[in-house]
Amino acid sequence: MLSRAASSLFWMARYLERAESQARLLDVSLTMALIDVPEDRTEQLSVPLLVSGTREIFLDSYTGITPQNLIDFLLLDERHPASVFNIIRNARDNALHVRGNLSSDVWESINQAWLEMQELQRKGVTVSNASSVFDWIRERSHMFRGAAYGTLLRDDAFHFLRLGTFIERAETTARVLDIRHVMAMKAMEDHATQAFFEWTAVLHSLAAFEAYQNTYGHNLDAMSVAELLILAPDVPRSLHGCLREIASLLEQVESGDARGSRRLASSLYANIRHGDRDYIAERGLHNYLVDFLDRIQLIGGQIQKDYMGWQG
Amino acid sequence: MLIQTPAEGLYDELFDKDNRVRPQCRMLENWLLNSNEELIAEKRREADVLFQRLGITFNVYGEDKGADRLIPFDLIPRVISASDWHTLQTGLRQRVQALNRFLHDIYHDYDIVKAGVISAEQVFANPQYQPGMQNLKLPRNLYCHIAGIDLIRHSDGDFYVLEDNLRCPSGVSYMLENRRMMMRLFPELFTHSAVAPVEHYPNLLGETLRAASLKPDPTVVVLTPGRFNSAYFEHAFLARQMGVELVEGADLFVAQNRVYMKTTVGPQQVDVIYRRLDDDFLDPLAGNPDSMLGVAGLYAAYRTGNVVLTNAMGTGVADDKSIYPYVPDMIRFYLDEEPILKNVPTWQCRKPTDLQYVLDHLPELVVKEAQGAGGYGMLIGPKASKQELATFRSLLKARPQDYIAQPTLSLSTCPTFVDEGVAPRHLDLRPFVLSGKKIQMVPGGLTRVALEEGSLVVNSSQGGGTKDTWVLEDDRC
């Protein structure tokens, strides 16, 4: 397939995944800010800014980290690329670019999301209706996935699209876990109940709360959460789950001489597949995640070099 | 709903001259009379939402990015009887065949010039003539694989060819989507009438494009200027329907006079390019050096015969206003047949007898510059002042070769939903004619309608809309 089309599909899927994870993060942060003692609110609300690396930019144009400012910035702000508004716009632009490779169901699901997003932006979103908007974003994301699974041919277009999803997802899981686990550990020293909520927040942000309950029961402890989100192969947003998909997708993609991304991905996958919680504890969760992020970004870059490298 | 009857002296597609409904339209009239305004208004809204969701929008140049607009879609179809279509189809085949013969001739043997049918100056001095196409052998001698022929129905009830579009005619996706929309909104209408299908157009197009190359299984691509082009939707639509890649100039490159596309597994050779770019933009080395849309070296690859362009380079000379009057003569010259479709009578002021006629009848005629475009330097006789007529009289005498003249035409009308209800509006018709191993077309074409009362301008950039076009399989229903 065309390299440019592969690139657009890859980015289209990344953006859609990003829209969903940003909605989940923001949703959890706003809820946590309600539970928290007042002086901690700012810290809770900062999480989505830290994950998307936009805290400084936010503070340049907004006065104070308040729920409404956060909603305006991360959902609606036209001037800023990290807003869901612009993320969906980018997804739709990429989809438009590869319209010839998409089924009409997939195209329409994305185009419809963009049309409704503009409508939402015109009407505005407040703290009181934010939840329904988060629901909407999740639904649109499910719909896109459903349309893609239900109607796309299992060819390289589909493989590159899924690669985009899992690279983005692996990065998000690693970032969220890295930032939130520090907050949870701190809470554990001060306040046991607070710590419970913090760990719940980690799991909810990554849609893994029910998975944790099923696996470990009600006992929330730091290493088990980390184990679930890193090592469990069957959790959709775990690093292991993402890497298994990435490695297998790269095996399926028709490949010329390009071996780089396969090599990098298999090596990282082996590392996780054969890893255990003692190794992570030994290295320290933060160090482990920073190392993981470096390597997953390298894989993302190498995929683009191997298959989409014609552009510029 | 009430249907406003048409003005006198015009041909109406629904009513005959005594305001009786034409037999082939009775079913349509029943439907209109039995539909209430609320239902229709609801269906119109539904159509708008669907077109938005499908993304069937077009960009107006100069407007904000993202200001995607819908082309107004009118719910009342335009009906063409089976016998009318039979004549049209035969006539279109004949016309396109002659045009292809003409293009081959003027780039090879110049028979028509030698025979004195058309003057050498009118062919070779035409700015659209591409000397680089001389003696280039094209598969099946085909130049114009996809033609869009604009027709109007005059008050005498006959169809006239207004213009041949032989470069990159567009609009076929609207023909297809309009049909899909009608079937979705009013399925019951189709159960009572035998409307000829158009849905197989992409298959025929794919067949035509593959036949443009002599290779057994050629790689075909659609070349688009990109997603900011007003017809981008159509390019993507056709590529998807045919299952071929939609490429931009930057996706292609030329090496050793072969064209390749940049794929995830390396270069892949391209055999046929269905290009939706004008000649001048195809290759910055041969045409406009500032073109960012084309492919450097494409022209050389084309000249070597390693790639086929559809349509060929240099077809523009055959759809030029100054060549148009000769199409009936081409049919007689190449095919030895009488033309089936009428041309709008055209007086060429370069000929002394024509000039005399034009000068004598100036207040009834439309005078156009032979090389002009876009309605500049034009005189509309019936609307002109005495002074304007006098100015043109002296212009015509001074430079007769620069002008042609035609009678003022009346476009037929068809009932259309407008703010005041259902009223007659003017329309035209663009069928799409495909030339490959044989000449094929789907029944009908794109019907464009001028939504302003009395307006004759059907262009979508100026507020024109479209309708579904129904060719009946059988007139006895």
UniProtKB/TrEMBL annotation, chain A:
Coiled coil: none annotated. It comes from the Bacteria. InterPro entries: ATP-dep_Glu-Cys_Ligase-2, DUF403. Pfam families: Alpha-E. Residues 1-308 form the DUF403 domain. This is DUF403 domain-containing protein. It comes from Marinobacter guineae.
From TrEMBL, chain B:
Residues 77-450 form the Circularly permuted ATP-grasp type domain. It comes from the Bacteria. Pfam families: CP_ATPgrasp_2 (PF14403). This is Circularly permuted ATP-grasp type 2 domain-containing protein. It comes from Marinobacter guineae. The lineage of its organism: Bacteria, Pseudomonadati, Pseudomonadota, Gammaproteobacteria, Pseudomonadales.
